[in-house]
Specification:
Two copies of one chain form a homodimer. In chain A, strand 8, helix 7 and strand 9 (214-218) form a beta-alpha-beta unit. In chain A, 56% of the residues are buried. Chain A has 13 helices and 15 strands. By secondary structure, chain A is α/β, with parallel strands linked by helices. Chains A and B meet through helix 2, helix 4, helix 5 and helix 10 of A and helix 2, helix 4, helix 5 and helix 10 of B.
Chain lengths: 425, 425
């Protein structure tokens, strides 16, 4: 196959005619496939459904003397705090165990920052003239939505293969209006990269002008390898402590992609001072989170070592899907030279960089042919990708046979959008 | 027994010596009993623990086509919305099913009212010069705490035997700074009364000056009779709709005292417009609440009729405790004529009105003798009871044999505090 960039106009026109015919053909199949969100597949949910029967009797419901069925223990059951400390390699006193969604705790922190302030805030953020959030992108759309909801100015920081552009981050945090940065440090959403040790160290060493600057360290895929063994990852809590700013970071993790996305449990890791502060703050809204589910999860997942075995089972479902995506792209797109992507070894997404100016068109072509992808640009602040060159692929939900069809549609759409672009000049 | 008010000083002194000796005696027993919070007893949790094994297989986890284990259905599983509509006698489209705590949703509503506003708000409440909440008292301390946390001015409205003083409420809502009122309309916390039909109708007919005035209708004990049959209760949602202000009311209920206080599920009932508005607002913080637990609950509680049977089982544990409290008060205090209380037929609390100026002293005497009650005054805004005459008794947690001891301590402490007061004059 000749790269598109080496084709003559005549060749491009011939290619366009061919690809258009292919597109018409797949469109006629009237598919209805969804790769929009990072949802676990039914097969994954089935293979962890033994968790349903872990707790059977009243006696099963105790963590030591504590009856999980009753009120109390706002910061979480001791066994659940110990479990997450094991997974994240911090201390149990650094852990607050919440409800079904870590996103809810992130939003609560932003909400209370605006109405009351964080530890060290000179005043509630709503009293500030302006509040700015740094948003490495492509990133997680729901992070950006929270910032936008609270009226923060979202500042785009480009991602690099080792993490966010740290030169820019270090420069921006000199501005006291810059109050937060949001990142997924391991198997980042959607690039699937792992932040380098240097990047992580530079995060811990940040010296922001704002005394209440906060890093939202959303470690959503902390143990979510689908290829190869678990990759060790530094404990950002102790690193920030050692660097002299223990209260600067809030780390999050959840079981949404370990057990049930629709019925899991979540945790926040932070300095002891922050855990105390937010136990007080959350005490206004909650008597206690769902401790029965916390206990059910701890008894099922046991410890980090055993949870990694559970993750291997997920990997057996996930890996073939990522391989399918990779195979189609390598076979159909790579020789044509107009797009690039990363092959991650963990997480839930693949970033696909299309020919600039064609991501939206590719998305529309897919949709018209019955394949729904995450909206083009959604991974950028204000859903605005200046280059219009990014699509997020979420291959986890459909079975492989559906994914094969979806990837055929996607690769044809990619080509068609690129050819349209090249021919319009 | 002679009422204290009819005793001579000499008689009072003799009585004081006798009661003081009794107090020393009970103090020497070094009790450690807690009647501070409305926690269900272990016996209650045990009798509903069959809920643990309601869901056993992947197939059990579906509500129609919807897999409760995966993301989606932010407003709740259809079966859970239908269940709560049955209990509260409204429509499923009026229901939003949340997480473990209804308090969390109430706080979310206040939080978003301050940062963004409610439907119909001219501006976010944080932009208002002042925001006032009406707080019928004695009431639920955690309601008042939320208002205080967000800086609202709390206005004390006295409770009457038929509900809040509605003349005062109707007068106060003419002030556009008055934005909310918080009530527990059935088996009120802590008086245990049921609002009269007239009171409820006057609530629905309120014509507040603030276009975004909201009634927080915390129907926490909607089916929580422990004596006699279920008492029907009007649907405030349709009543406000009929009165022309459908968006004025937010009703709440939960399973915290039906299944597990530490692992239940909750709901909000409101106008369809409010449900849509808050589904959008909550969509910023949540992908979905714990639907597995929603389904587990619906399969266990089935419908209103069957849930009332479950409540009869709870009643068999609760009633003897309330009877114990009542018996001690009737026997030891009633003839002395210096205190009053209500004997409720549902809910979790008894309001005990001590001799004015002695509630705090009674509380301290109990504490010194090893019996912890809810802090005196806690049921009033800012924890300030102007008459210092109220204690909330929460008899649900201790077994009856412990309660007997606790009531002995309480009745002795009540007498001692009253005698000290009478003798200091």
């Amino acid at each position: 196959m000749t790269p598109y960039s080496c084709m003559t106009r005549q060749q491009l026109e011939a290619e366009h005619a061919k690809v258009l015919a292919q597109y018409q053909h797949v469109k006629d199949q009237k598919l209805n496939l969804n790769m929009a969100r990072g949802k676990p597949a039914k097969a994954q949910l089935d293979l962890v459904s033994d968790i349903l029967t872990v707790l059977q009797t009243p006696e099963d419901c105790f963590d030591g003397d504590i009856d999980s069925r009753n009120y109390g223990e706002l910061a979480g059951l001791p066994c659940a705090r110990a479990y997450w400390a094991d997974v994240l390699e911090c201390k149990p006193e650094n852990i607050f165990v919440g409800g079904a969604a870590s996103l809810n705790m992130m939003c609560d922190i932003v909400s209370r920052a605006f109405t009351h302030g964080l530890l060290g805030s000179p005043q509630p953020w709503c009293k500030e003239e302006k509040v700015k959030f740094l948003c490495p992108a492509p990133g997680y759309d729901r992070h950006f939505q929270i910032g936008e909801f609270y009226g923060a100015e979202l500042i785009y920081i480009p991602m690099t293969p080792t993490g966010p552009d740290m030169d820019m981050v270090e420069e921006y945090v000199k501005d006291p209006q810059v109050k937060m940065i949001w990142v997924v440090p391991k198997y980042s959403n959607p690039d699937g990269i792992i932040f380098s040790d240097e990047t992580i160290q530079r995060f811990a060493n940040l010296k922001p002008a704002a005394p209440d600057f906060a890093i939202i360290w959303d470690n959503a895929y902390c143990i979510h390898e689908f290829e190869g063994d678990y990759v060790p990852f530094p404990d950002i809590i102790s690193m920030c402590e050692e660097a002299g700013r223990p209260n600067m970071v809030f780390e999050f993790a959840s079981t949404s992609k370990i057990t049930f996305a629709g019925g899991g449990t979540s945790c926040m890791a932070a300095s002891v001072a922050n855990i105390q502060y937010f136990t007080g703050v959350f005490g206004v809204q909650m008597i206690s989170y769902d401790k029965v589910n916390q206990l059910r999860h701890v008894k099922y997942m046991k410890n980090k070592a055993y949870t990694l075995e559970i993750m291997k089972r997920h990997a057996s479902v996930m890996a073939p899907k990522f391989h399918c995506v990779s195979r189609w792209l390598n076979q159909e797109i790579k020789p044509l030279g107009f797009a690039r992507w990363v092959d991650p070894k963990g997480g839930y997404f693949i970033s696909l960089y299309t020919m600039p100016g064609t991501a939206k068109r590719t998305w529309s072509l897919c949709r018209e042919a019955g394949v729904v992808l995450t909206t083009a640009g959604a991974a950028y602040p204000y859903s605005h990708n200046p280059n219009d060159d990014h699509l997020r692929i979420a291959p986890s939900l459909p079975p492989v046979e559906d994914l094969e069809k979806a990837m055929e549609v996607l690769t044809i759409s990619l080509k068609l959008a690129a050819l349209e672009k090249l021919l319009e000049k």
